[in-house]
Design a protein that fits this description.
Helix content is about 30%, strand content about 40%. The protein is of the alpha+beta class and about 140 residues long. Strand 1 and strand 2 form a beta hairpin. The protein is globular and about 40 Å long.
Length: about 140
């Protein structure tokens, strides 16, 4: 993926980081494809999403970690986006989990101390929160 990410333009990298939603595709527990909008953060060159440990989405991804995702947007005549596929891997490292907790809080609520952030994610390293690293195998992007 490193070479793929190096080829993204700086404006496209910045565009992706600024977007609020990532559309995550996975195979559900009944072997049907699903696509859901999710919150995400970019740390370094890596994309991370989060969900609840009891969620249908997480149970399906634990069974089959193959996923795809799209970050896109723009206004008529000026579209940008990235479409990638690979695997979702659970983040278990406590330091990285804490960093992701803070990153989600800052991006979506201005602070990890915001009451709504704590309501959704619990406290730092809450076992009911799952963070996933999206590891792309390949993909494509567009700017036009």
């Amino acid at each position: 993926m490193e070479s793929l990410m190096k080829r993204l333009t700086s404006t496209l990298k910045a565009f992706c980081q600024e977007q609020e939603l990532l559309r995550l595709a996975y195979i559900d527990l009944r072997d049907r494809p699903r696509v859901v909008p999710v919150w995400f953060v970019v740390v370094g060159r890596d994309y991370f999403v989060g969900t609840g440990s009891a969620s249908t989405k997480w149970n399906a991804i634990k069974r089959n970690s193959r996923v795809a995702w799209v970050i896109d947007g723009g206004k008529q005549g000026k579209y940008k986006g990235v479409s990638l596929f690979g695997n979702a891997n659970e983040v278990t490292d406590r330091k990285l989990r804490a960093r992701l907790y803070r990153a989600f809080g800052k991006k979506y609520f201005g602070s990890a101390d915001h009451p709504k952030h704590k309501e959704i994610w619990g406290e730092v390293d809450d076992p009911s929160a799952v963070y996933m690293l999206l590891k792309p195998d390949d993909g494509f992007w567009w700017e036009y």
